[in-house]
Amino acid sequence: MGLTEQLADLRQQLGREIPRETLAQIGQFVQGLVQSGIEKTACQTGDKVPSFILPNLSGKMVAAGEILARGPMVLSFYRGVW
């Protein structure tokens, strides 16, 4: 199943649980992202991550290089509440 079909399926599933107005707002937001061309500048599979320092769950600042020196690293991006 392609991405278009997956999104259509997800829209159908979500339509049963999320008010239509909310789905319309999300759809407008996504359409704005598509029109902005943001995917052309987004990281792709296999891209190397630039060096960075971020707080961990405890609030301690940790450099990516420190983690990578011990092995693979997983980044998880959390947008927060909608």
What coarse outline follows from CA principal-axis ratios?
elongated
Q: What profile does the largest beta sheet have?
A: 2 strands, antiparallel
How would you spell out the order of helices and strands? Answer: HHEEH
Helicity, as a percent range: 40-55%
Structural class: mainly alpha
Percent of residues in β-strands: 5-15%
**Poorly predicted tracts of residues:** none
Number of strands: 2
Sequence of strands across the biggest β-sheet? 1-2
Write the layout of secondary structure elements.
Layout: H1 3-15, H2 20-36, E1 53-55, E2 61-63, H3 64-70
Antiparallel strand pairs: 1-2
Describe it.
A hairpin with a 5-residue loop joins strand 1 and strand 2. The model has no long low-confidence stretch (mean pLDDT 84). This protein has a two-stranded antiparallel ribbon with strand order 1-2. By secondary structure, the protein is mainly alpha-helical. It has three helices and two strands; from the N terminus they run ααββα. The two termini are 28 Å apart. It has a domain of 38 residues. The chain is elongated. Helix content is 45%, strand content 7%.
